[in-house]
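Readers of this paper often ask what the protein records in our data store actually look like. Nothing more is needed to write down the fold, since each code stands for a local backbone conformation. Below, we set out a record of this kind in full and without editing:
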Amino acid sequence: MPDSSQPHDGPDPTLATDPAVYKTLLESTRAIPWRIDWATATFSYIGPQIEELLGWEPSSWKTVEDWATRMHPDERAWAVDFCVAQSRAGVDHEADYRALTKDGRYVWIRDVVHVVRDEQGEVEALVGFMFDISERKKTEQKLLELQRELERLSFKDGLTGVGNRRHFESVLEREWHQARESRRPLSVVMIDIDYFKQYNDRYGHVAGDDCLRRVGRLLDTATGRPRDFLGRFGGEEFVLVLPDTDADAALRVAECCRDAIAAEAIPHSASPVAGVLTVSMGVGTRIPDDNEPPLSFIAEVDRSLYLAKQQGRNRIVAGKRAD
């Protein structure tokens, strides 16, 4: 007779046949097991862990309607439609959604679903596990916010706080496309601080940096509309992108900016044109067409800025009207 006190080789065969063992194993995990009868759309089982997570007693999970109504409204329609369609097709699947707790909060859930078929291949039941993924979602949200912040910083000029050259090019491309589609005018103003090298030589680079920041704030205040864009084009040059703005309106914006800087009366004793800081501006307006790239338009506005400087600075030169 075999000695029953000796250890076996391999697993205990009772584990494979005792339902109580399976139940104990399922209910000892943090995952929440469940089973739905497909024909009646009713829960035949849901783990007691559901009460610890959501507050709802297991006995309150009777039909799939209980599952659906305890889902956040923003996810309910697509999650229910998706899960039903996948189940009907016999495809295992998973879905993330927010589940309502008994005290009115929401918890992020990942539902992993396995489709059980009968001998004829028809869907018989759905079995699965619910996992609490709230912490994972919080981490994902933090990473998303960090990514957005990094994106924002990558579009920001570190000195003045206005948009940088990369941001300007992105905005110009977008607004050029929209203006072409809508057949509406798009205006650009290029701004150059007069004799800025002499300013730096006279007052020092620290004062020069502060001057650039002050000019950036003044220009930002002088524009004001939500879609207007202000960026630092490079060095002592700034640029304004003015959507839905015709030539006359663009010229008024430029004059407003020039007046704001003049009113600030920033001392510039090394300037040949005035004892205070001044700017030169080039203004252009275009209703884009399919044959002209935006960079050729910018080159034209830059030529107007060059003319303003060539003609004595402290002035605005507008290009040919195209609106």
